[in-house]
Design goal:
Elements: E1 18-21, E2 26-28, E3 37-41, H1 48-66, E4 70-75, H2 79-89, E5 94-97, H3 102-106, E6 110-112, E7 120-122, E8 125-129, E9 135-140, H4 144-157, E10 174-176, H5 182-194, E11 197-198, E12 201-205, E13 208-214, E14 218-219, E15 221-224, H6 228-250, E16 256-257, E17 261-266, E18 272-276, E19 289-294, E20 300-302, E21 305-306, E22 314-315, E23 322-326, E24 331-333, E25 336-349, H7 351-364, E26 371-374
Helix pairs in contact: 1-4
Pfam family, one: 2OG-FeII_Oxy_3
Domain Fe2OG dioxygenase: 256-351
InterPro entries: AhpC/TSA, Oxoglu/Fe-dep_dioxygenase_dom, Peroxiredoxin_BCP/PrxQ, Pro_4_hyd_alph, Pro_4_hyd_alph_FE2OG_OXY, Thioredoxin-like_sf, Thioredoxin_domain
Length: 376
């Protein structure tokens, strides 16, 4: 098993492609979204090691069929060769042809060798993807038996399955799984522990935007991420895994972000944030989308995200997963009843909003260091 290739890691959306299948018809990956799948790569059907991989997935197919998991095989072979191989080995899953290595390079499973012969190094690898074409797991197929055993387990444990429900009300939110891995989430919690302070909120006073701390409205402590190495990593991940999803779901080009902050809602202090919107002042009007990413789901009680305008439903994404929603949507963080909830927070916007924000700040000349504390 491997957590990444040269170009992709768990949580990334897989590159889309169109390839010829064994019959010469064009297979378009995006047309087959909506079902989980295994996409596996090797160099050529004629190679003994590659044949072992093909047969292993042939034997795994009945379990995949039962779990409604599709199987797509990609090699460098031409359609007629793949067709003959499929007939010979009684393979019924989809065989695809990447004759110019373009898709294999996108997935990071092949690269030029360092010798002068012009050869290519091709890694045998498999990707387990969810219904929305995001990577759930990556497997190195060198230890084939071990990899197949892990895949057999993962198709039952990593793929979410819910019974269809009759929905009568739903908040206009986007849920994104596996944005951050669990180890990085723990790193962020440890970073919060190095330095944090009471978190306020913004109110409008005339044309000015004023910061307030009011413990009847919000109890949270924040750490603003300043470590450059961590910031670079966060920005890279958010651009790949969040901005692309915002574009697909809402047709909005997010290009900018506010400071990333790590927040703590502690039950010993009565952590909460009462119902509010994020874009109600001149200094916050640029906030087109908000992100709440849970860093330690399962380690606390209470602490749900709720959107009261859109029903009583409660949202608590898994660790490393995020909720994205419009800054104009009313929302609240419900009371923590046990433990301590850690979240990564930020706001996203585009170039138009950046210009509007700059013009407002030049006019209003807000001093965000001047925080007003409301006494209980």
């Amino acid at each position: 098993m491997s957590l990444s290739t040269r170009t992709l890691s768990i949580g990334d959306r897989i590159p889309l492609f169109g390839l010829l299948d064994r019959t010469g018809d064009r297979f378009i990956l995006s047309d087959n979204a909506g079902k989980p799948a295994i996409v596996f790569f090797y160099a050529q059907d004629e190679m003994p090691g590659c044949q072992e991989v093909a047969i292993a997935f042939r034997d795994l197919k009945p379990e995949c069929d039962e779990a409604n998991v599709q199987i797509y095989s990609i090699s460098l072979d031409r359609p007629e060769s793949r067709h003959a191989f499929g007939e010979q080995q009684d393979i019924s899953y989809t065989l695809l042809c990447d004759t110019n290595r373009a898709v294999s390079k996108l997935y990071g499973v092949c690269r030029p060798s360092d010798d002068e012969k012009g050869d290519w190094i091709y890694a045998r690898a498999a990707f387990l993807i969810d219904t929305n074409l995001r990577i759930l797991q990556i497997y190195h197929l060198g230890e084939l038996e071990t990899a197949i055993d892990r895949i057999r387990t993962d198709i039952h444990t990593l793929i979410r399955r819910e019974e269809p429900r009759h929905m009568t009300m739903q908040a206009p939110v986007l849920l994104i799984p596996n944005v951050l891995d669990k180890e990085f989430c723990q790193d962020l919690i440890r970073l919060w522990q190095t330095d944090n302070g009471d978190s306020g909120f913004m109110k409008r006073e005339g044309d000015r935007t004023v910061g307030y701390i009011d413990y009847t409205h919000k109890i949270r402590r924040d750490h603003f991420v300043g470590d450059r190495k961590i910031l670079r990593r966060l920005v890279s991940i958010v651009q790949r895994r969040v901005f692309t999803e915002i574009k697909r779901a809402f047709q909005f080009e997010a290009t900018r972000w506010e400071s990333f902050r790590i927040g703590s809602y502690d039950s010993s202090r009565g952590g909460f944030f009462r119902a509010h919107r994020d874009d109600t002042t001149g200094g916050t009007a640029h906030r087109r989308f908000a992100m709440t990413l849970n860093l330690n789901a399962g380690e606390y009680e209470g602490g749900f995200l709720r959107f009261p305008e859109h029903g009583p439903h409660l949202y608590k994404p898994d660790t490393g997963s995020a909720v994205i929603f419009s800054g104009s949507v009313m929302h609240e963080a419900t009371d923590i009843t046990a433990g301590e909830r850690f979240v990564l927070l930020s706001f996203f916007y585009g170039e138009k909003e950046a210009e509007q924000r700059k013009a407002y700040e030049e006019r209003a000349k807000n001093d965000y260091q001047d925080i007003i504390t409301v006494e209980k």
